Amino acid sequence: MQQIQIDVAVVGAGTAGLGAYRAAKAQGASAILIEGGPYGTTCARVGCMPSKLLIAAAEAAHQFEKAPAFGIEVTQAPKINGRQVMDRVKRERDRFAGFVVEAVDGIPAEDKLRGYAKFIDANTLQVDEHTEIQAKRIVIATGSRPTYPAPWASLGDRLLVNDDVFEWDDLPESVAVFGPGVIGLELGQALHRLGVRVLMFGVGNQVGPLTDPSLLSYARKVYADEFYLDPDAKVEVMELEGEGDNQRVKLGYQDKQGDYVETHVDYVIAATGRRPNVDKLGLENIDIELDERGVPEADHFTLQTSVPHIFIAGDASNQIPLLHEAADQGRIAGDNAGRFPDIRAGLRRSPLAAVFSDPQIAMVGKTFKEVDGMYSKCNCYAVGEVSFEDQGRSRVMLKNKGLLHVYGEQGTGLFLGAEMIGPEAEHIGHLLAWAHQQKMTVAQMLDMPFYHPVIEEGLRTALRDLNAKLHLGPAMIEQCMECGPGA
């Protein structure tokens, strides 16, 4: 068996792993990157990029449905060519993944090792059956994988996760999506707009990542108005029927009126969450503190685990499974592994998340659940709001669906966070995240420029409402002329 001695071993070559490797090398440490699966990162291969390609196609098709409302006659329905849709998705997906592979190809061959690593002890990794690595420091960056209830495996190849969708050569006629979270909403709505019959089921009435009850209620209605969505479903039957190409999934469920319905779909898509890839790392061979899911506990700012020379980053850390977070965590973990034992706190940016559904969803800073948990006993926070249904620019573009809540601290006027469902939420979310990271007050945010007519004027309305409720500004005035018409 090959023997390697190294300063830093990075397990996993995704977004976090690549960042950790580069940061460790920048500190002058010798480092090796270990990967058993395909190169290309989750985002590029099966996550954010291919899903946005599918959404872009869906948006193009959806414009034909909206055209008559603008007075534009569409003489015939658009023909959606599923093969061409999926061909572009896969071509562009492969292009994005190719950029990552090229970056990996640029890493010296002696710094890369193919295979799956497992802890033998706190400083020893065995990679498959061919290599033993003695590492002074180790970064775990093994990512995550989709998870679903074990009995569903009986559906065979009629059960898919989001990774599988992007391997289709053509669009199916029908799917059932389980899990109206970020992945489920994006894929389900896109497939619906591309002519696929979609049934979406959830549990506990949760839709997306929202925690604000008013926004959750709004989200349930606005998505259910477009396609079948039951966020608290009672599915009683899910089984295979037929043989070969005629095989389909039989579903039996109570609809929202309480009536029992039976139907068939081509596929079941499980969008029921992801699981950190740490269960096969041999963590039982080291004395490391784990959380209730079996994931190593780590300091939020240093990514250091209870074993001082072991760090964890990215989706494997069970913190925030987003690409920009994985990149930041990888840099912090790799930097600390490289400079060990001189551990430094890294920059953790303000939380920012987006769902690219229509209307979009954005979450910034502290969620409503977090704010309410911290401040409700002292009654020392307020909520400003705006509806986009009557907001000027939103109505002009017929994108007037949505609700924005912004949260502020009584006394200081500090902006705490926001939740939003509405038009251009991805962009408004960025503005709010910058303000949150700069620890701005609501009054300071209101001093910033707002052009007219733009959707962001709705944000100003919500901030004015919040400022008034914090008793730091005048009460809102209906049809305020200096606000601009339809602001």
From TrEMBL:
Organism, scientific name: Corallincola platygyrae
Name of the protein this chain belongs to: Dihydrolipoyl dehydrogenase
Enzyme nomenclature, EC number: 1.8.1.4
Annotated FAD/NAD(P)-binding domain residues: 7-330
Alphabetical list of NCBIfam families matching this protein: PRK06292.1-1
Signal peptide region: none
Gene Ontology molecular function: any one: dihydrolipoyl dehydrogenase (NADH) activity
Pyridine nucleotide-disulphide oxidoreductase dimerisation domain location: 354-462
Family to which the UniProt record says this protein belongs: Belongs to the class-I pyridine nucleotide-disulfide oxidoreductase family.
Keywords of this entry: FAD, Flavoprotein, Oxidoreductase
Cofactor: FAD
Domain of life: Bacteria
Enzyme category, top tier: oxidoreductase
